[in-house]
Specification:
The chain is α/β, with parallel strands linked by helices and about 300 residues long. About 40% of the residues lie in helices and about 25% in strands. The chain is built from 10 helices and 13 strands. It has a 5-stranded mixed β-sheet, with helices on both faces. Strands 11-10-9-12-13 form a 5-stranded mixed β-sheet, with helices on both faces. A 3-stranded antiparallel β-sheet has the order 5-6-7, with no helix packed on it. A hairpin with a 4-residue loop joins strand 6 and strand 7. The protein is globular, with a radius of gyration of 20 Å. It binds zinc ion (ZN). The site of zinc ion (ZN) has 6 residues, from loops.
Length: about 300
């Protein structure tokens, strides 16, 4: 039997058929429709699933279940609140189920990515596991002995909104100085832009033709690799903040494995080696033989598909 995992994002809908070994054997992708009608998105997803069945030359009854990762909060079959796609109290599971004839389960997308890395990626085999994502925002999910720790209102693990600098930068959540306001990919681009404005020799001015709004993570790490002094200073400051957040998580939970995912994890060892060195010097139990192992996520976007099922 197969399962179908769907990662419903603000930009794209990615779907995949997952086999018993938690491997994806067929994939599909389409743009997320911008609409106030969740029914239309449910219909897009149903069509994608029929297409996947046709491509594998199987009937819909070959699929056990459909799991859908939602960019927001989920309660059983209902999407409570998903800003990016404009869903509020939407009975989305039944909308997809009625079109496909299959049972549908919903899960928050960060939790889905964490579950994916836990069962089939960098967290495989760990008894306790924390996933930290550095993307548009900073997300987190904690899995303990196979279960996601959800909290009393299903938002446990939202470490992006843990303050690392009191009275610091304004965050979208209303607080100041949040981890996310310093360490998301967007925050890194903003910090680089601010520095490039006041440092005319910064390579980012050249790379962007002086249109500093073009700065993204990739460009930043290219300038860093080229030896740019301004970027080196920003990177040092960024890594100090990232270390503060990661050490806070480790001191609180001591997971066996902490995995870094999200867009910025793509730079790999540049970030990982530096982070490991800094964390080793700051963590509370620094003299102990047993330490949380920090790794980079290995499944990329597939984690959300595998985790959703
Ligand atoms: Zn916040």
């Amino acid at each position: 039997m197969y399962r179908v995992g769907i990662d419903l994002g603000g930009t794209n809908i990615c779907g995949g058929v997952v086999d018993e070994k938690n491997e994806i054997i067929a994939k599909d992708e389409l743009l997320t429709r911008h609409t106030s009608e969740p029914e239309l998105i449910a219909a897009d997803i149903a069509r994608m699933i029929f297409r996947l069945a046709a491509r594998l030359n199987v009937s819909m009854s070959a699929f056990d279940v459909i799991g859908i990762g939602i960019p927001g909060s989920v309660e059983k079959d209902i999407v409570r609140d998903a800003n990016n796609i404009g869903f509020y109290d939407v009975p989305f599971a039944s909308m997809v189920s009625s079109r496909t004839g299959l049972p549908v389960t919903l899960i928050n997308d960060t939790n889905a990515a964490a579950r994916g890395e836990y069962v089939a990626g960098s967290g495989k085999g760990a008894a306790s596991f924390f996933m930290l994502t550095l993307g548009t925002g900073v997300g987190g999910a904690y899995i303990y002995k196979g279960d996601i720790v959800e909290g009393c209102d299903l938002a446990a693990g939202e470490i992006g909104h843990m303050v690392i600098r009191v009275d610091g930068r304004q965050c979208s959540c209303g607080r100041r100085g949040c981890f996310e306001a310093y360490c998301s990919a967007s925050a890194l681009s903003l910090r680089a832009r601010e520095a490039a404005i006041t440092n005319e020799f910064c390579l980012l001015n050249k790379f962007t033709d002086n249109d500093l709004y073009k700065i993204d993570g990739k460009m930043f790490f290219k300038a860093l690799a080229a030896g740019d002094k301004t970027c080196a200073d920003i990177f040092d400051s960024y890594m100090r903040d990232l270390t503060a957040g990661v050490v806070n998580v480790i001191n609180l939970l001591q997971p066996d494995v902490l995995v870094i995912g999200g867009g910025l994890s793509g730079v790999g060892n540049v970030l990982l080696d530096d982070l490991k060195r800094r964390v080793a010097g700051e963590v509370y139990s620094l003299h102990s033989d047993t330490q949380t192992e920090i790794r980079i996520a290995s499944l990329g976007n597939d984690a959300g598909i595998i985790g959703a099922v």
